[in-house]
Amino acid sequence: MLLWRTLTEKSLSPKLVGKMRRYHLTRGEGVLSFQGELLAYHRHVDQEDAPDYPGVSHLITLALFRTKKGRFVVYYIVEYPDNEHLFGQHQYVTHLPEFADVTRFVAAMAYINVEPFRTKVISEATTRLSPSA
Predict the structure, then answer these.
(1) Strand partners of residue 6
(2) Helix (H) or strand (E) holding 122
(3) In Å, what is the CA distance from 62 to each residue of 9, 24, 39, 77, 121?
(4) Gap between the Cα atoms of 11 and 17, Å rounded
């Protein structure tokens, strides 16, 4: 029997990269469930000498998945510390058909600390998706 797992910090670990799993992601009032593999991820807390961003919206986590059907899921958490409309950490999920769409989506992110996330995650995912020579 296969169980659905809600995505947690334990779901984003080096030992799970490249392995097929079932995921259950909450998004607002709905849920996105899929079977796929974790291609790459980056967390702010894992970054050596990661600066604090008091009062500025910033990324906490960025993860890329490839579904069993070959589509892509971008999962990211943003912290909004001093915003009158949003406060705290918010999870977002975007479902895209092609990896080129993922690259464009991540490149368009404008958070203050996006560069280390963008560089690491896109590079690792590209390496994992390219056929071995």
Answers:
(1) 24
(2) helix 114-129
(3) 11, 16, 11, 7, 8
(4) 9
pLDDT 10s digits, 39-49: 988 876 665 66
Residue 44 burial (CB count, 10 A): 19
Q: Which of 60, 47, 39 is nearest to 109 (CA)?
A: 60
CB atoms within 10 A of CB 42: 21
Distance between CA 45 and CA 79 in Å, rounded?
13
Task: Say how far apart CA 55 and CA 45 lie, in whole Å.
Answer: 17
Interval 42-70: pLDDT, tens: 876 665 665 666 667 778 888 899 999 99
Tokens of 58: 């910033």
pTM of the model: 0.81
Nearest to 109 by CA among 70, 87, 77: 77
